[in-house]
């Protein structure tokens, strides 16, 4: 299966971490900053565009139709996510193994919605919603959903449209808890907002208008169950590997430094 990650990014993008070692995906860098040629050699594909994330995506898809059509899965993460190539590889493997239509890694760090927060009891949870922070689409689903990308300026609410377009399947949309992306800044602090003069107030107005236009209940987020983790899979690990979330090396390093910092405080 061919996988594509589209990084729509500004100057502080973390995408170099995503491709740190043996990625099983290609990277398309779309730069919206002001420094000519910045990140031009960081991905297989590169271009520039202006606007908010999914408005930019709509523009790029129109310009590179053949590129997008050649991939089985297409993921569009925010540029402020800490997630390694190892984790992306595992995410795509799970996405394909369970034949998902839309999914995202679980989130630690600054949360936008509780549904997407990491749940260590599951490999994945089936839901009727994934957020615009880091959705992954199958090719077929991407083509169905791309018409929503220009729905409004802030992009708020279009993630509620995607499950509706699919008919709300109960086993094709998921939060993949076996993979964690760490969100490194608070929601609505991304520079595509302030660059485009979009306020929190305008975002809330747009999502309310969209829900009314398409008769979408913004409170009706459902979890249909999922694939639970086998308890022994965790309990039988050696002590140094007993850690939630799984394989999240940056979190292990952070926790390990807490002891050192505390010891220094008492010296």
Structural features, described:
The longest helix has 17 residues, at 249-265. By secondary structure, this protein is α/β, with parallel strands linked by helices. The model has no long low-confidence stretch (mean pLDDT 89). The chain contains ten helices and ten strands. The chain is globular and about 50 Å long. The termini are far apart. It has one domain (3-265): Alpha-Beta Complex (Spore Coat Polysaccharide Biosynthesis Protein SpsA, Chain A).
Entry keywords:
267 residues; Spore Coat Polysaccharide Biosynthesis Protein SpsA, Chain A; 10 helices; 10 strands; 34% helix; 21% strand
Concise structural overview:
This protein is an alpha/beta fold and 267 residues long. It is built from ten helices and ten strands. The protein has one domain: Alpha-Beta Complex (Spore Coat Polysaccharide Biosynthesis Protein SpsA, Chain A).
Which helices and strands, and how do they pair?
Blueprint lengths: L2 E7 L5 H4 L7 E6 L13 E4 L4 H11 L1 H5 L3 E3 L5 E2 L2 H13 L4 E8 L12 E6 L8 E3 H7 L12 H8 L7 E11 L7 H5 L4 H15 L8 E6 L2 H5 L13 H17 L2
Parallel strand pairs: 1-2, 1-4, 2-3, 6-9
Antiparallel strand pairs: 4-8, 5-9, 6-8, 7-9, 7-10
């Amino acid at each position: 299966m061919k996988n594509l990650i589209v990084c729509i990014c500004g100057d502080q993008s973390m995408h170099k971490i995503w491709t740190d070692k043996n990625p099983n995906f290609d990277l398309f860098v779309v730069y919206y900053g002001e420094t000519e040629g910045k990140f031009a050699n960081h991905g297989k594909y590169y271009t520039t565009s202006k606007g908010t994330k999914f408005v930019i995506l709509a523009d790029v898809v129109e310009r590179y139709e053949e590129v997008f059509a050649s991939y089985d899965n297409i993921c569009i993460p925010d540029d402020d996510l800490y997630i390694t190539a190892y984790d992306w590889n595992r995410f795509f493997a799970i996405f394909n193994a369970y034949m998902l239509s839309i999914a995202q890694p679980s989130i630690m760090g600054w949360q936008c919605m509780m549904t997407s927060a990491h749940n260590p009891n599951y490999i994945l949870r089936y839901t009727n919603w994934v957020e615009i922070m880091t959705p992954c689409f199958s090719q077929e689903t991407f083509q169905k959903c791309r018409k929503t990308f220009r729905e409004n300026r802030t992009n708020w609410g279009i993630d509620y449209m995607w499950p509706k377009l699919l008919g709300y399947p109960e086993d094709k949309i998921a939060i993949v808890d076996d993979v964690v992306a760490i969100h490194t800044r608070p929601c609505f602090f991304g520079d595509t907002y302030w660059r485009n003069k979009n306020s929190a107030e305008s975002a809330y107005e747009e999502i309310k208008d969209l829900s009314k236009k398409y008769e979408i209940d913004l409170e009706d987020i459902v979890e249909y169950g999922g694939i639970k983790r086998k308890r022994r899979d965790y309990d039988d690990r050696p002590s140094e590997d007993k850690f939630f979330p799984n394989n999240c090396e940056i979190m292990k390093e952070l926790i390990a430094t807490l002891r050192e910092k505390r010891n220094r405080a008492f010296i």
